[in-house]
Amino acid sequence: MNYLDNVKIVLVETSHTGNMGSAARAMKTMGLTHLCLVNPVIKPDSQSISLAAGASDIIKQAQIFSSLEEAIADCRLVIGTSARPRSLQWPNLTPKECGDKIIQEASNSDAKVALVFGRERVGLTNEELQKCHYHVGIPANPAYSSLNLAMSVQVLCYEIRMSMLNLSSVLTEPEADIDSIEFPKDEDIERFYQHLEQTLLKTEFINANHPGQIMGRLRRLFTRARIEQHELNILRGILTSVDKKL
Amino acid sequence: MNYLDNVKIVLVETSHTGNMGSAARAMKTMGLTHLCLVNPVIKPDSQSISLAAGASDIIKQAQIFSSLEEAIADCRLVIGTSARPRSLQWPNLTPKECGDKIIQEASNSDAKVALVFGRERVGLTNEELQKCHYHVGIPANPAYSSLNLAMSVQVLCYEIRMSMLNLSSVLTEPEADIDSIEFPKDEDIERFYQHLEQTLLKTEFINANHPGQIMGRLRRLFTRARIEQHELNILRGILTSVDKKL
Questions:
Q1: Which of B158, B165, B224 sits opposite A225 (nearest CB)?
Q2: CA atoms within 13 A on the CB side of A215
Q3: Is the full-model pTM beyond 0.80?
Q4: B84 near B17, Cβ under 8 Å?
Q5: Is residue B32 classed as helix, strand or coil in its secondary structure?
Q6: Sequence-distant (≥ 6) Cβ neighbours of residue A176 within 8 angstroms
Q7: B179 contact A CB<8A
Q8: Digit-coded pLDDT (tens) for A38-64
Q9: Other residues' Cβ atoms within 10 Å of the Cβ of residue A67
Q10: Distance from C-alpha of B243 to C-alpha of B246, rounded to nearest angstrom
Q11: Assembly ipTM
């Protein structure tokens, strides 16, 4: 199978037709075909399709979502791009590490993986970045660090392709330990957060009128840990046991 | 000294204004500034300068030559880009090897190094390729291998920058922000685990007679995340809120 088929490139609120077409071309040169558009400011129209030149098939087949959550619902690994320095205290990857991790995950099974790019000017919001297990940044010239969207897509997709070529040429066995870990889908994790919030409202740890930062902080903690399936089962079991006693 | 100052990016007979500007931007994002134009079909005019956006200084300072030979006259290492398969039986480099070799050479002395890009449609001629010590190709999707000029400049300059950063090990500098995070003492974390276990016994999620692996698995989850102090406070608060309700 082609591992690259498991990799989604997600563009959030892209606002320029030319960027969409150039990103599609960049993807296709590296063998990636699965494009997801979240709330595109411009819809993939005939102009973006013609600007995509030989990669117009990528634009035509693109899936459109109204939120990042929907786009990554079936993904077990989500990596977000950020030009910002490591200010969020989040697990950060170099582009090469990002490529390796994506291919490692995509080669394990039919697990979907997402690499998420933000808006041309302002990137991803903090809230969006907090939905990602890892952040990746291209270590650019600090005096002129603004790679445009398509250039960033090109570099990161290049590293994904290099990792895939390394993997298939070396034919190394997948790392046994990582291989056997089952990670839940994003939608299952979202259900856990909803359950957690409901329970904390019942215990009155969260005040419905002043919920504050509690849920955001808990999400950050669990995202950082990258919950495994059996752990998610334990956490859901704990909540259910609390619910029953209340 | 900055090794990148020894590296020349040479564009041969570039024919589109936009490509020249985009190539200049790609160079600058990776910290490269020395652009050489061999017989440019379009001269670096006000339009190409404006398309270069923040990288117009690169275009303004570009040196113009009437032959490749003149452009590389002062270079000890010349690498030519080629999209063709390895048909010329010439020493071929991967992009990463190309970056390593360029930085190795550029860091040795004040030896100038050139990385040469060909015409948009037809690349470098055989004669030009034979003036190069090595050839480098980006291993693209065989079904759609046409990276445009600026994209190729971006990827290869990216690898040059990565090699430089590896050499100066800037990439391994400590994460600045990690210092500002407050992590709890181990004894406080142990108290949290004891509290958690007590609460789970009360909710009967853990059976006192058959505790099983639950606590071990939860410890593993939280250890992986490396709990921060404010998160530990939240988790203790949740347990207290459950205890009160029971």
A1: B224
A2: 19
A3: no
A4: no
A5: coil
A6: none
A7: no
A8: 999 888 777 777 777 889 999 999 999
A9: 12
A10: 5
A11: 0.76
